[in-house]
Structures are given as structure tokens and as C-alpha cells.
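Appendix C: a fully annotated inverse folding record. The material below is reproduced so that readers can follow the format used throughout the book. The structure is listed first as C-alpha cells, followed by the designed sequence.
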């Protein structure tokens, strides 16, 4: 286990549990890769060895080393009673009575009000999923794909019909992406095992991707959205500079991997068209093979086998490869614009140790509801109105945009970040 630290009181066994009493300063000193503590509901846990076996991946739990993880723990574990058995062996004590429940400069009032809101939303049943809705969602995805193949099997493979089929397949893939997101968060069924099985079916067999790859990547995004070195979605591999801090840092250090003052232009060439067919595809295959994730690999291969069985008799092997590449490019365009309009124009920075509500709201925005938007980006929900009222009370920005404003803001934010980089590069 990790290092011991200094106790404010002697450690003793209380009801069979370690009874150390710690200050926040002591907890915060245990945040290295080889020594990790965190706090949940004022209880202090040593997760140094457990982090390597954490089902959600080592990185997402390590991001909270030395911090209060109460809100993240609640958000990521629908069945809190089930995970308590994993926590008990890790318990080493609790916070001293003189220590506040929140760490650093987090607002106790915001945290308490958020807890109250969460309890109210839960009591009103707004977190209770309707499995019938998700079954219908899955059914319409299968119907879209079946229709895409039926069109070309019955009426032929003309350019017009092939394009129509490709658009239907891309739409089916995009919708499967939103559906697997909900299964992956274990938010559809009460039994986690059912969510896991349908997650692997949806992301693996229907999309050809990996459930474990998605979990380990996406959980980090939700745990620390738009935080450099913690949210993999803002790791731009030096292709882009984003936010207001990174461009200036790159400019001052004279870092110029790309002509960043033109990134709002070359984004159209390397962002939307290539993310899924190139970057994600390489990542997924490397992840499954390097981790020996044979179940996910089998699910992924079943997707491509099914696709080839449907397409090779019509287009041949080369034509089938071209078709699926085109479908992936179409899907990638939609995916990039929808996901990035929520995050790229928002605050992107290094770790600021904000409370959960403030961190989430500074890193994302809402898109105005409409029947099309609710279907296309799989969003909607009455709880937004309640969250907005809480934000108004505490002066936390709550942004709502039209979809077209969101798209324009992606372009605008890239240009603004590029201009910041150029100014720092030339004059600082």
C-alpha cells in the first residue's frame, strides 16, 4: 500500500476498521503514482494498490488522488451499496472533526445545494431510465441498418442508391454511438451485468469498437472534463492549441508543430473527416491487442465480418472497403461537430480543483431542445431546468445555444486560440 503520512491522532482500530484521523493537507500529500489517497464522505481511503484493479481503469480514479472524490464517486456508481464492499478494505481513517467536508477552496454552499438538488431529482424519478425507450432506440438503429442494405439489395448499387445507403448506415452508426454511451454508463438497467452485455453488443458488434477502450477513455472525460493531462478528449497531439491557456504557453515556448493561426482552416481537413476512421480506429485496435482484450476483439471482428458478408457480394472486397471508409468519414463528421460544440468553445485549462457542479458547467453547454435535436444528439430532459435555477442562484454560467451557434463556436474558438498563439509566439 502507499505511504503512511502523519496522523493528527494515533491510529487505532475502531469497529475493526483503521481509525486514523487526517487533515486535508495530509490527504493532499498522497497524490503520486505510487502513493494515492482520496476522500469519500469524509472517509479516507488508500487506493494505491486498488487503482490498478479498478474496473473503470487506473487513470480515472488516480485523477482524484489527494482530493475529495465524493461527487465523482456518486456520479459514476449507480449502485452505491454494491461498491461499498470494495471500499471497506481500503479505509484507513477519516477527516479530523476540525476539517471541512470539502477540500481546497470549494464552496460548501454550492456542494450542499447540489446534493439537495440531486436528491430531489432522484426522488422525482428523473434518473430512472425506461428500458422500453432504449429497446425502441436499439430497434430503430437495427431498422436503419436493415433499410440501408435492403435498398441496394433490391434496387441495385447505383451511385444514388449507394450514397443513400451510406447515409443511412452512418446515421445508424451515430445513433449506436449515443446508445452505447448510456449502456456504458450503466444507466439503463438496474442490473449492471445487463448494461455490460448490451454495451459490448452495441459498441462491439454494431459499431466494431471496444467497450473497455471506451470506458477507460470516456470516464476520464466525465471525471475531469476539459482538464489538460486528465481529459483525453483535450489531448490534441499538438495538432491544435485550444482554450486560452495552452495557446499562450505554446507561443511563449516558441512551440510550432503546426501553423496554429490557421488551425480553424485545416481543422476541416484533419478533424471531422479523420477522427473516427483513422485516430480512433488505430487506438481501438492497439488497445484491444495490447490489453489482450479478446472478448472485445471478437465483438469487433463480428461487426466487420457481418459487414463484409452484406457488402462483398454487391461491391467486391475493394468496393466494400471504400464504402465502409466513406461511412466512417460521414459518421466522424457528425460525431466531431456534435461533441465538440459542447466542449471546445468552453473553458479548457489545467487542474483548478473546482467543485463538481462548477467544473461540469464550465466545461460544457446545452443545445436548445427540439424533437430533431433530442434525436440527433440524444439529449433532452427536464432536469436541465432545475440545474439552471441552481446555477442562477450561485452565479455559475449556464450556456444554452442553438445547434448552429454551437457549430459556429467551434470554428470561432479555434480561430481565437490560434490568434492567441500567434500573438504570444511573435511578441512574448
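Designed amino acids, in order:
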Amino acid at each position: 500500500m502507499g505511504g503512511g503520512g502523519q496522523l493528527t491522532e494515533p491510529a487505532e482500530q475502531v469497529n475493526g476498521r483503521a481509525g486514523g484521523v487526517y487533515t486535508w493537507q495530509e490527504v493532499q500529500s498522497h497524490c503520486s503514482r505510487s502513493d494515492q489517497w482520496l476522500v469519500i464522505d469524509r472517509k479516507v481511503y488508500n487506493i494505491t494498490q486498488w487503482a490498478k484493479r479498478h474496473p473503470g481503469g487506473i487513470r480515472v480514479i488516480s485523477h482524484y488522488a489527494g482530493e475529495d472524490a465524493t461527487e465523482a464517486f456518486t456520479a459514476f456508481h449507480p449502485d452505491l451499496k454494491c461498491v461499498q464492499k470494495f471500499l471497506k478494505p481500503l479505509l484507513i481513517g477519516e477527516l479530523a472533526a476540525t476539517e471541512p467536508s470539502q477540500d481546497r477552496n470549494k464552496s460548501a454552499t454550492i456542494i450542499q445545494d447540489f446534493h439537495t438538488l440531486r436528491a430531489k431529482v432522484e426522488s422525482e424519478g428523473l434518473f430512472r431510465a425506461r428500458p422500453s425507450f432504449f429497446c425502441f432506440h436499439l430497434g430503430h438503429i437495427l431498422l436503419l441498418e436493415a433499410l440501408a442494405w435492403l435498398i441496394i439489395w433490391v434496387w441495385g448499387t447505383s451511385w444514388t442508391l449507394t450514397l443513400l445507403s451510406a447515409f443511412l448506415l452512418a446515421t445508424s452508426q451515430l445513433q449506436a454511438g449515443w446508445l452505447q454511451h448510456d449502456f456504458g454508463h450503466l444507466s439503463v438497467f438496474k442490473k449492471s451485468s445487463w448494461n455490460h452485455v448490451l454495451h459490448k453488443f452495441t459498441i462491439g458488434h454494431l459499431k466494431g469498437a471496444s467497450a473497455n477502450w471506451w470506458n477507460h477513455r470516456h470516464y476520464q472525460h466525465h471525471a475531469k472534463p476539459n482538464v489538460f493531462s486528465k481529459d483525453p478528449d483535450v489531448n490534441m497531439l499538438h495538432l491544435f492549441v485550444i482554450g486560452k491557456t495552452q495557446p499562450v504557453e505554446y507561443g511563449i515556448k516558441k512551440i510550432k508543430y503546426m501553423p496554429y493561426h490557421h488551425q480553424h482552416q485545416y481543422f476541416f481537413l484533419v478533424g471531422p473527416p479523420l477522427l473516427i476512421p483513422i485516430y480512433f480506429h488505430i487506438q481501438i485496435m492497439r488497445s484491444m491487442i495490447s490489453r489482450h482484450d479478446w472478448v472485445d476483439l471478437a465483438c469487433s471482428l463480428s461487426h466487420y465480418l457481418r459487414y463484409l458478408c452484406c457488402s462483398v457480394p454487391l461491391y467486391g472486397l475493394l468496393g466494400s472497403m471504400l464504402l465502409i471508409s466513406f461511412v466512417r468519414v460521414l459518421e466522424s463528421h457528425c460525431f466531431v461537430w456534435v461533441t465538440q460544440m459542447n466542449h471546445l468553445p468552453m473553458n479548457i485549462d489545467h487542474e483548478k480543483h473546482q467543485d463538481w457542479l462548477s467544473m461540469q458547467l464550465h466545461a460544457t453547454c446545452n443545445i436548445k431542445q427540439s424533437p430533431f435535436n433530442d434525436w440527433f444528439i440524444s439529449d433532452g430532459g427536464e432536469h436541465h431546468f432545475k440545474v439552471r435555477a441552481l446555477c442562477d442562484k450561485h452565479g455559475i454560467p449556464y450556456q444554452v445555444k442553438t445547434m448552429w451557434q454551437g457549430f459556429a463556436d467551434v470554428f470561432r474558438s479555434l480561430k481565437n486560440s490560434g490568434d492567441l498563439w500567434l500573438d504570444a509566439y511573435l511578441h512574448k
